[in-house]
Amino acid sequence: MHLPESFNEALAQSVKTNWNRNSMSDYGDITFQYKDVARIIEKLHIIFEKVGIQKGDKIALCGRNQSRWGIAFLATMTYGAVAVPILHDFHPEQVHQITNHSEARLLFVGDQVWKKLNPEEMPNLIGVLCNQDYQVVFSRDKKLDETRDNINKLFGEKYPDSFRPEHVSYHIDEREELALINYTSGTTSNSKGVMIPYRAIWSNTEFGYEKLGDELRPGDQVLSMLPMAHMYGMAFEFIYEFTRGVHINFLTKMPTPTILLKALADIKPRIIICVPLILEKIVRKAVLPKIKDPKIRLLMNIPIVGDQIKKRICVGMQEALGGNFYEAIIGGAAINAEIEGLLKDIGFNYTVGYGATECAPILSYEDWKEFKKGSCGKAAPRMTLKIDSPDPQNIPGEILAKGDNVMLGYYKNEEATAETLIDGWYHTGDLGIIDAEGNVFIKGRSKNMLLGASGQNIYPEEIEDKLNSLPMVQECVVIQKGEKLYALVYPDMEQAKALNLGEEELKSVMEQNRKDLNVQIPAYEQICGIRIMKQEFEKTPKRSIKRFLYKDAEV
469-512: per-residue pLDDT in tens? Predict the structure, then answer.
């Protein structure tokens, strides 16, 4: 297989090679072949040209995952404009702010998002097009309306003898050229516009070829369930798959367990890209109750018999996820240690990667067959990782990264760029160690690290991981008040309802959890009290808790 030399060349090659294959589907609805995608891209290019969009101009996209979102994104890149993906979960004020800050000239928007927006708050826009059909829903230039109304005529005039593979010609991108601006969802601060160059997009795509090229082939299927406006989902549920000739199925609805499991069974994806929450829910509901039976636990420790039981459990999990995937790649947040231990014990084909928006996103990864439990793999190709610590194998320090995947900086934010990019090294803000084999182990975020009364470093994520394994705990956050630590816990309300537990009973369960937890951890990490939260913690679209919202919570 000839590996293209640039990102847009890879897009063009894939369109030409896979002309008659299925490219994108909105699950349960419309399907586009690669030739359909190519024709729509060309029509959007005609619109861009007619309204005066120049190379380097910004085009924003905001809406739920769907094929036409993806096509508009590809049209932007292949035209030479700069894509500005905006998470549809953002509040309208954030969408307005990001559209203005990025200086976007056009906005592609989902119908549900559009209902909440005010175009008068985005004065620099030429117009707004709806993702459902690219109809103009707001315009400040009659050329936009005229061009959209006559787009089929204009397309026919440009290609009177039909549009064929040889007509596909895209913008020639340069390594350091700005490809997109991705605004971070932020667990510790407000959004910043991460400037991603083409070299970073292409390096991440090459990573896909190098690590998954033998397992994911043209015609295979994947399910896209992570937000496409987030680099993790964009890079590895969409961009790489498109360049590979894969059929991408967009889950256009909220991924409830029922909807998700049905989609996985129907599509049978060849790889699964997910956040820990998805696997953890399946394990907690479908696997843990079975193996908590004392008889099963006893049998699992008996040679041969135990292996057979573990194999059956593993096969059951694989079948629940479609039964056809090479591996499940987990990222975006830390996976619970107890759940991971079980997955490893039964031989489940999973691996955990590590990334950041600033690296578009991959920093480390390892194939599931070589993956070391508790780690998040080894440094990705074309990337160097190091630990800012006197003893990187034993003493946690900030993880620093250098290489092709690293961003150009933060858009119109020189101060934040200078704080994060120092002498070519990207300072991740994450704490970790790297063992002798090069495996990376995350210990927490440097901004989250707490200081004990005697100067000890306390990593709240490690305490939370243990607490999350105790009864009735669905999710938690550890905070510090003075020299004391407290836990905020949102209980498993579904289980509490099933057991008919009231508020007082829940308090008793959490107090026992506190005592059991404190037995497992050092004296300087002891939890003084647990506050039960009435609602789930507010999260980013990749399901990370927005910790900064709770640091001053009452206990």
Answer: 999 999 999 999 988 999 999 999 988 999 999 999 999 999 99
Which of 424, 445, 466 marks a domain boundary?
A: 445
CATH number where 154 lies:
3.40.50.12780
Among candidate residues 62, 58, 63, the one with its CA nearest the CA of residue 79: 58
Is 216 within a domain? no
Tell me: the pLDDT tens digits for 233-279? Answer: 999 999 999 999 999 999 998 877 788 889 999 999 999 998 887 88
pLDDT at residue 186 in the model? 52
- Name which of 174, 230, 239, 178 is nearest 204 in CA terms: 239
Distances (CA, A) of 441 to 331, 389, 478: 13, 14, 20
Q: How far is C-alpha 407 from the geometric centre of its chain's CA atoms? A: 17
Residue in this structure with the two tokens 């004020």, named with its chain if needed? 93
Q: Which helix (H) or strand (E) holds 119?
A: none
Based on the structure, what is the number of domains in the chain? 3
Distance CA 48, CA 106 (A): 9
527: tokens are: 């939890």
- Over residues 393-410, the mean pLDDT reads 96
CB atoms within 10 A of CB 539: 17
On whether both 455 and 433 belong to a single domain, the answer is: no
CATH of the domain at 458: 3.30.300.30
Q: Of the residues 412, 429, 445, which one is the last residue of a structural domain?
A: 445
Same domain, 466 and 360: no
Q: Are 194 and 235 in contact (CB under 8 A)?
A: no
pLDDT at 416: 92
State pLDDT tens for residues 421-464.
999 999 998 999 999 999 999 988 777 878 776 567 787 988 99
Q: Report the predicted TM-score, pTM, of the whole model to 2 decimal places.
A: 0.84
Q: E strand or H helix at 38, and its extent?
A: helix 34-50
∠ CA 264-267-270 to the nearest 5 degrees?
85
CB 72 within 8 A of CB 61: yes
Answer for the pair 59, 105: CB distance below 8 angstroms, yes or no: yes
